[in-house]
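Form 12-C: Joint structure prediction
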Amino acid sequence: MSQMHDLNFFVKLALAFAVMAVAWLVPGWRFGVPFAVLCVLVLWAIGVPGLRGYVKGALLLTAMVMASWLVNLFFQGVGIGDALPVAAAMAARLIATTAAFYFVMETSSPGSILAAASAARLPPIATLVLSLTFGIIPMLRDDFERIADAQRARGMEVDDVALPTKLRFALARGVPLLVQAIRMAHAISFSLAIYGFDLKRNRTTWRNVGLMVEPRFPWKDTNDET
Amino acid sequence: MLNIANLNLGFGGPAQVVAEATCSVADGQRLLICGAAGSGKTTFLNAAAGLIPRLLAIPYFSGDVTLRGRPVSTIAKDELFSTVGFVSQNVEDQLWDLSVEDAIAFPMENRGIDKEKIRARLEELIDGLRLAPLLGRRVLTLSGGERRMVAIAAALASNPALLVLDEPTTGLDPQARERLSRTLREAAASVSALLVSEQDPASLRSVVDTIVLLKERRLSAPYRRDDILPLERPWLEAGILPPNRTRSQRKPANPGAVLLEISGLTTRLARSDGKPVLRDVGFQIRAGEAVALIGRNGAGKTTLFKSILGLARIASGSILLDGADADGWTAARRARKVAYVPQNMRHILFNMTVIGEVVFSITASTATTADKAVADRAAAMLARYGLSGLAQANPFALSARQLALLGLACADAAGAPVAIVDEPLLARDVEGRRMLDIFLSSMLDSGRAVMLISHDLELVDDVATRLMILDDGGIAFDGAVMDGWKSPTFAALGWAEPYATPKLGGVA
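Section 2 - Result
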């Protein structure tokens, strides 16, 4: 099932949009909730990395969406019995949608997106925007984790503390994360400049691209010294 | 090929970084710029490669830099960076979240080269630099030395006419340095000229033919490699440890109580063949010891210290810190017993001032303090490592050398019984070595210990009281330094023993 990870980025994107369309078209919570659960189960079955973190976020999202809809409908005079299915259906749509795009984001490296876009002969600006749009969030999340590890490595207790303290420390990572994001942007623009990225010239790719994108360079090593 | 005349560079401070620099690199020439850390090598190379002022603004720039007779400021960026290949001292400045093969192919893909040609060139570079074990990995997950090899491969990929490398051997093990030297020699057919900076003049002696020293902001006249390498005075005057120096007197070790004890450590992190990166690792570090850990790039040195700190999960094994069982401790609690100084300090900085970083090292909770004792201790540490004038500076604005000194100040200030120092690059020049000696004395004389991870075998020989060799997932040698150099384990690495052969010119 992990071969799903190597699907062409545009195929993944089409699948994600299809899932989103189904999620928003199915009537009510009776279909919506099982469909959302199915989407999350598919993520698990195909081994999407970081699923535990996604599930935590999805549960938080569910709670927030349901709470906001229940309050909203309450003020409009809708009873709890009628409001609950509406809120559940809305949360289910969002879970299915986020699950679909989480799959795209987590299984598409900037390199594989560049390859798919270059093979499709997209204009360089579109290639760059797509790879950065889908690649930047995992990069920032990795940096967020790295800063947390830096805090731990410097003796700052971010694990064995109460949840409010944990949240406060997480928020305190915002400033270094911002600094890191600026550095990352600089590194990307610097590498684009010195490695010849040109908006007027279409890129090529070393990868074989079709329905699937070649995940790594094939190598039959006969001289590996290690 | 490249002509530089009366080049002056400054960042707006009272003194210029580079003054009246004049030099040239002819077709076929391999020029090495040598200077102490902070001497202005990086700024000079940035200007020589056209990065200054084309990509990087600088407050003060005057003089002429011409490439094949044309001022670099008039050459279109695309043409300029097709002609000049560049590898930064801090390779993270030019790498982002691509896989190894993506990063190497990136310059060729951007220039619209055919797929088959890219694949053929990839194969050449991967084979030449022995990068096959890294294929498929994200460059940002590689060790420092591995990243550098990937960046060098990317710079070579488009066959530039002029290759500019800023301290390319940083973080490379001796075998990787030899691979790099061989690749650079082989690249002579396509790369017309090479301009490279290093602190260690011996590391690329088989590649370069001319050496220029950068001292007191000025370039010396060019020396023929074989003329200057045996000398001592020019190097010392430039603040660099002479390449032909002899072994220094070893301080006697006087180990005390066990501060760190690892037993049976096996990591969860595994290699592509399924074997754990570290298997059944065990050793002790005692008070008053400076224990050096050496091993190939990718041997697992980073994984080892991450496991000690609790940042990498282990499958089995136990860790005793200062006599206490640390197995159930959080990473932060362990870190208060083990201070860590990484190769790139930017990885562990997150406060907004230099003094704030030192205060944080002492308090482990805040970068500001009303406690006079803490403030005084932080100020004293900055003074000890020559950073008092930068107390209110943002750490991310510091030079590589200043960051390394801040790392030592933080580790010293933390008061942890053990400090792990990963590749202290500042130790390659006279002043940097003096600072490292101050750090080692402060640690060892106060009953603490240092674990030094380095590929600089002469540094290891100079300062270590014990040697450990990490190979094939375990500690393959643990004993006296001199015994280590003679051991079969060291012989199996294929590295030259430090100080064993005179480092005169000639192909290594």
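Section 3 - Comments
DSSP finds 18 helices and 21 strands in chain B. Residues 2-237 of chain B form a domain with the Rossmann fold fold (CATH 3.40.50.300).
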